[in-house]
Structure formats: structure tokens, C-alpha cells
Specification:
Four copies of one chain form a homotetramer.
Chain A (H helix, E strand, L loop, with lengths): L12 H14 L12 H8 L3 H13 L3 E4 L3 E4 L10 H20 L4 H13 L11
Antiparallel strand pairs in A: 1-2
Helix pairs in contact in A: 1-3, 2-3
The structure holds a DNA duplex.
Chain lengths: 134, 134, 134, 134
DNA sequence: GTGGTCTAGACCACT
DNA sequence: GTGGTCTAGACCACC
């Protein structure tokens, strides 16, 4: 019903949870004010330690993605980032894209196909919510 | 004169070396058969432990990016990956692009701007070789 | 009409109530013998659990700030602390001021400005009664 | 030799460590590039769990106060905040000072004495490095 | 019920 | 040697 993580991945489990929640929010599969499962609940579900989920939730709260209300639960925040257009943010994205192109080159994929893949991913946005934690 | 790495970064130093070499190759700043600096040389240059560079070179060789010839030195390999168009490779790129879009969303950057940034990075390819691992 | 509390804050709600009442008294916005709203009344107003307000009132009574008279209501006490000048109290204030200066340092604010801010706060005392617990 | 914390305080131990390190830096008892004791070392010294210190160090790094160099240790950062004068920072200090004055009022300490105490604390800055974690 | 803190002890990655 | 992650299980504060 909820997210699936891979304990054997080289990216830590708490980070996988963070990434997955952020991905779900970006894809509108998780809307503002939605209540996330409680730490213990999710821990049981994933059969991992509650501390690991607590760490993920704390980091997400620190990033302003979710908010914790004492004794009530944790909820998805309203506005992700109301800033109009940050230069640092654009540089950040540019750097990520550079890394994608570097890897594409070493996989033998021409830039044209990267463009196509980007269009493909954008077109199917909000559709695939499963599978994004290798 | 050669690559610059940041010991403070949370990405391990050996990984920074790997990323930098692969980026230079992708940008044709390092062409096949080019000789890389020796481990000791580079270690002195960066004032870091030779073991760290050895680890990076080993991993690069394992990936088929460079070639170590005993007694001669280490050299950039010829063809990165001559496969025409691997499905797994495309899925790999698609996944990376998904992550970029997720982060762009949380930075408040619309998809249009991501497209623009991709074009910008492709247009300036092979030009900027400095600075991509902080 | 009355105090406003923030359930999102990391300081507990009952503590916010305590702080707010004490601040209002210190600023003479609440004078001795004034009747506070009843627990049920306030609970309805803030739409929070009556237990939370009861806890705050209990603590305020324990500190001698307010007085609960069964069947009549709760009232602001007369003299906060008539002691002339307690050494322990001064040490207490000194410690708090130390913390302020430490934080000011890490915010890049020189001590001169802290002095100015103190004068500013003292000058505008009893004027602003809203907003001091987010 | 190093900091002393109180396990029975209502402020969590990891927070006490954070506060103490920041206080020492503010008082120049800890200068940039100084190496902090290792997690295990400090854990032995304080006879508390290494995880608790790890949490404190991580938070301090997140705040930009210290920096971790993989496999080497943790060090005090150089510039705390080079910003000239932030309005939000001043408001932050103002809010803290308001709280100090509120408490001073309830302790029966007049504002004049608060002023004196502030001068006293500033005058003796960098002198007392012991005792600030009640 | 909720999340927050702490302990004990383990394993891993990096230098 | 360093810090980073995870587990098991405990206790507490808040609502």
C-alpha cells in the first residue's frame, strides 16, 4: 500500500524514504495536509526499525516538506517553495543535468535520446508512482 | 593543473575523482589513449593518500573507462560503450531524469525551465570542463 | 480575541499559553485580580483540548502567577515576587543573557546591536502585546 | 577537560552539547580549524552513548558551525556568518530579549538591573568558559 | 495514540 | 582511526 524500500541498496534506507516521499509529493500522489503513516505503523509495514523512519521524517520536516504536530501525527506541508525563480536553484538543476549527460555518454546514449526521455518522463508525470528507489 | 577535489564534500574523494575523469571524457577533454597521471604523481598534486587514487583508478578500470598497463601507466580506453541502444541504459537515464524533475519541483522550478537548462547544458558541452563536484 | 497559539510550533501548546499569560502580565496587559477565561471557554476559542489549558493553568498557579478559586474562576495574582533582589534570580537572568549573546554571535550580530535591541524592547514595553510565541 | 552535561536536565543531552560548543566558539575558547574530540572519545569522556554525540555533531554541521572531513575528524568552521546585518536575525534577538525581560519581571528584577547584567556579561566575555548547561 | 530521546551494540565506508 | 547507518528495546512528553 505504501512505499517500498531496498535494505541492500547503497543509498541509506532513511534516504530512500525521504526521496520517495518527495517524489510522491512532486507527482501529486501526496497532497498538502495529507497525514503520513505514523512512525510505528510504517516501521511495522516495512519491517524496519522505527528510528530509521523517525530520522527520515525529521529530515523531511527540516526541509519544510512535511510538518509534525505534537501528539497528532505528521502531515504534508502546503507550499513547497513560493520563491519565483532562484538562480542557485537553477544552477543546482543544471549541475544535476550535467551529471545525467555524463552518464548518458558513458552508456552510449546520444543527447537526442536524453531529450526524448525527458519529454517522455514529463508526459507520464503523475502516472507512475511506483518504483523509484534503486 | 589537474582535477580539483573537495575533502569537505560528503561525496567520497575517490568518487569525486571517478566522476571528474568520466566527465572529462564525456566532454572530450580527455581523449582515448591519453595517459593519466600516475597514482603517486596525482597523490602528491592533490596532497591526499595514494590509496584513495588507487581506489578510484581501480573502479574506473573495472567500469572499462581506463586501462592500466603494468609498467607503462594508465590510459583512457577507446570506445566507452559501443552498444546501439540498450533498454536498461535508457531506463537508467529515465530514472535519473525523474530524480531531477522531483528536485526541480521541490525547488519551485517548472518543467519548462528544466527543458531550457538541458538545452543550455547541451549547447555549452565541451566548453566548461571545470567545476562539477562540490 | 484572546491569545493565539501555534500547534505547529515545537514548543508545547500548554507552554505557549503559560508564556503568553506571563508576557501579558509583565507588559501590564493583564493586571492583578483580572479574571481569566474559563478552561472550557478558552478551549472552545482555541479549538484545542481542555486538558491542555488545564495543564497550563495548573502550572501558572503552581508558579504563583494566577489563583484558582473554586466556583468563581481563575484570577491574576497580586505581587509577582516581592523579594528585593535575589542573587539566584540575577544569576538566572545573567545566564539567559549569555545565551542571547551566544546566539547573536552566531547570527553575526555585534554586541552593540544587542544593546540597542534591548533598549528598543524596553522603550516599546507595554505597547506590543501580540505575537511572541512562534 | 571538556564540556560537562547534565543527563537529568529537561533540555536533551545532544542539545546541551550543541549549546556548549556554540558558546565556546562565541567566546573564542574554540577557534576555527580546531579539531573537536572524536565521537567515541567524547562518548567515553561523558559516559554517554556515541549516538547522542553523533546527533549533536550532525546538527552542528548542518548549522554550518563545524565541518566533518571523512575519516579525519570534525573541525570548527571558519566564518560563522559573513552577512552584514540581517533583519530576521535582529528580530530573532529581539524576541529572545523580550523573553528575558518577561522572566526578569516575574523574578522581580527591574529593567535597570537587566541592563547592568548585560554589561556585566559583555565585560566578562571570553573569561568564563565553564558552567552554562542547566 | 503521537513523535522525541537515549542506550547498547553492531556493521560499514572512507582515509 | 574517523563518522554514518541500522537494530532492539526502553522511557518520556504531549495531546
Amino acid at each position: 500500500m505504501w512505499l517500498t524500500i531496498d535494505p541492500r541498496s547503497n543509498t541509506p534506507m532513511y534516504q530512500q524514504i525521504i526521496d520517495d516521499v518527495k517524489a510522491r509529493i512532486a507527482k501529486h500522489a501526496l497532497t498538502p495536509a495529507t497525514k503520513l503513516p505514523s512512525i510505528r505503523e510504517l516501521a511495522m509495514d516495512l519491517t524496519i526499525n522505527p528510528n530509521t523512519i523517525a530520522k527520515a521524517y525529521q529530515e523531511l520536516e527540516r526541509e519544510g516538506v512535511i510538518e509534525v504536530i505534537r501528539g497528532k501525527g505528521t502531515f504534508v506541508c502546503a507550499a513547497p517553495t513560493p520563491l519565483p525563480a532562484d538562480a542557485a536553484a537553477r544552477a543546482d538543476v543544471r549541475e544535476l543535468l550535467t551529471k545525467v549527460l555524463v552518464q548518458a555518454h558513458h552508456l552510449g546514449i546520444p543527447f537526442d535520446e536524453v531529450r526524448q526521455e525527458l519529454e517522455h518522463v514529463i508526459a507520464n508525470w503523475t502516472m507512475q508512482v511506483e518504483e523509484e528507489s534503486p
